[in-house]
Amino acid sequence: MKGFLNNKENFQIALLMIDQFPEEYKIVIDTANMIVEQNFIFNHKWDMEVCKTPYKFNKNIIWNYVPFQDPEWTFMLNRHKFWLDLGKAYSLTKDEKYAKAFFNQISHWIDSVDLKNPTFEHCTRTIEMGIRAINWIKALELFKESSFFNKNIEKKISDSLYNQCQILMDIYDDFRTLSNWGILQNTGILVFSIVFNNYSQSKEMFNTALKRLIFQCQIQILPDGIHWEQSPMYQNEVLNCLLDVAIILRNNNLDIPREILDGIKKLAYSNLIMAKPNHHQPMQGDSDDTDLRDIITRAAYILEDGYLKFGAYKNIDFESIWELGLNSIETYNKIKAIQPDFTSAQLKESGNFYLRDSFLENSNYLWFRCGPIGSGHGHGEHLHFDLSIYGENFISDPGRCTYVEEDIRREYLRGVTAHNTTIIDKKSFSEFKGAWGIVNSAYTLNTHFISETYFDYVEGGHLGYVYLNNPVVTFRKILYLKPNIWIVIDEFHTNGEHTYNQIFNFDPEKKVNLKKNSAEIIGTTNNLKIHWLENIDLKKVEGIFSREYNKLEKNIKIISEISEKDNKMIFTAFIGQKNKEKNNIKIKEVPIVRGDKTFVPKTEARAIEIIISETEKYIFVNSTKDIAHQKKSYLVENTLFYGKVALIKKEKKNTEIKILKY
C-alpha cells in the first residue's frame, strides 16, 4: 500500500526544491547536518514546543534525558519530526550520511526505549506514539533508495510501530476521545494500518481508528469550526492530522468519510476567518505567532476550494509539496482563488468574533473573545481583543512561552492580567493552578453581533466578579466604524464602590507615549491613537511577550485605573493612522436626555460623538438598563430613539438611526 510519496516523486521534488526554494533548502540541510551530529533543535513551524537552543549528545542519545528542566523538550525529542529533515536532505543531496544517521538513530531508539518501563515515561505517552507512527513512516519512505535501506531494518521499524499501535488500541478513554491527543494517536494507527497492512491486527486497527476519528470530528469540532480546546496551535495539529488521513486515503483509492472532509472544511474555514492581515493565527490560548498559509493551502488542495485558496499561498509551498506530492502543483494551480463575500464574522459557539474591513494584507482587524475557556490550553482571556492597524499588529495576546510547572512566566501568561481585558479590585475573574489546572473560569454571558457595510458591533460579558462582597457583572461592547475607528465601552453593573483596570498589551516593536487621558502608539509604518472620555489614571508597565515557545521578549502595556460607585461605563476610542498620516477625527461626549428632555444620570446612559468631517459624524449611545421610567425614549442631538444601544449617522442633511440592541 502507498504512503505519502513514491521514490520517483522524491527525486523530482528534490530537483524542484533546490531551484525554487533556496531558503527552505538551506534550513533543511543545516538542520539535517545538526541531527547527523546528534545536535538537536526543534525548529519546524508547527512544532508544538519549539526549542532553537541546540543540545548535543556526544555519545549515545539518551532518549529520556530532560535538559533545560523542561520535559516538553524530551517529548519533542521522542516525536522524531527532525528525521523528516534527514529524509528531505537525503532526497535533495543523495548523501548517504543522512540515511546512515536515520537508520542508526531509529535502531538505537527501538533498542533502547522500553515501552513498559516507567523510566521512559517521557518517551512513551500515547500522544508521542501517535506522532511517531506518522513521522517514522513519512521519513522511511524518503530513504527507500538508500544503500542502508533493507527489508530487515524496515521490519524492525514496522514491528516496533505495530507494538506501539497495539498499545494505542488499548489505551483509549474519555480524555483521549475529547483531546487532540486522541486524534493524533488515531491518525498514527490509521497511517500504520494502511502502509503496513500485513499484520494480523492491521484491518481491525484501520476500522477502529477511522471510526474513532469520525466520532472525534463530531465531538471535538464546534459547529462554527473552532476546535473546542480554544487554542489555534492545537486546532491546527488536529487539522494537520485530518489532512494526513485524507491524503493517505486518497493515495490508496480509499473513500474519505464525509465527516473527515467536513472536519477539514470547518477547521480550515475558521483558520481563514481568524487569520490576521499578516496571515498569522492569533496567539490565543497556548499558541505561537504562526503563519497559517501552508495548512490552508493543503486544505484548499484537498477540498479544491477557491475561497480557502484566497487565504493560502498562490502556489504550493515547500512543506506542502512533500505532503501532497508532485502532481499537487498542477492541480493546485487550476484552483481559482475566490475572495470571500464577507469580511467580519462571528464564530458564536466558541465565542470568537473577527471584525475587519477586508481580507487584504493592509486591512484593519480586531479579534474579540467571549466564550468557553476550552481545555488546559485555555487562558484567562474573557473580553480580550487583538487589534491590527492597516496590516500591522498593535494590541496582542502576549503568547505562552513555557509549560514548566511553577514557572512564574507560565502562571502569568495564562492568567487574566496578561490579557487585554478588564479586572476589578485587582482580582482575577478566572483562576488557574500550576501549568495546566483551571480552578474556575468565569461564566460568559450571551454575546451580540451585528455586521453592516460601514460598521460592526459586538458585545459580551461574564459573571467572574459576582463572588465579590459587592458583586459586579461586567460587559465589553465594541463598535467598529470602518475602516479605522473602534469605540470600546467597558461596562460594570454594581451597587458598590470598586476599582477598575483596563489592560492593553502592545507588540514589542511599539513605542508608547502617554498624555492626559490619551496615548499615542508609534508603529513601524502606522500609528494608533487612544482617547479616554473620563479622567483616568494611566501608566506604562514593562511586560513579557512570547511569539513562540521558549522565546521571550519585553513589551510595553498600558494599565488604566479608575474608582467609582454604582454602575460605571469607560469609553475608550482607538483611531488608526495609515502610514502615520494625521487625521482630523474628533471625539467628545455629548448630552443625553429623555424624550421629554428630563435628566438622564451617567450611570444609566451616555453618548459619544465621532466627528469625521464637517459633513459626516456619528453618535454612539449606550444604556446600562431596561428603562423603568415612564419616558422610555432618549434624545441626543435632536434625534429621538428607543433602544439600549444605538448608532446615529449624520451625513450632510440626512440622519440614519441604527438600533444595535433593544
From TrEMBL:
Residues 344-564 form the Heparinase II/III-like C-terminal domain. Residues 29-292 form the Heparin-sulfate lyase N-terminal domain. Keywords: Lyase, Periplasm, Signal. GO terms for cellular component: periplasmic space. It is found in: Periplasm. It comes from the Bacteria. GO terms for molecular function: lyase activity. It holds the Pfam family Hepar_II_III_N. The keyword Signal applies. Its main location: periplasm. The keyword Transport does not apply. This is Heparinase II/III-like protein. The lineage of its organism: Bacteria, Fusobacteriati, Fusobacteriota, Fusobacteriia, Fusobacteriales.
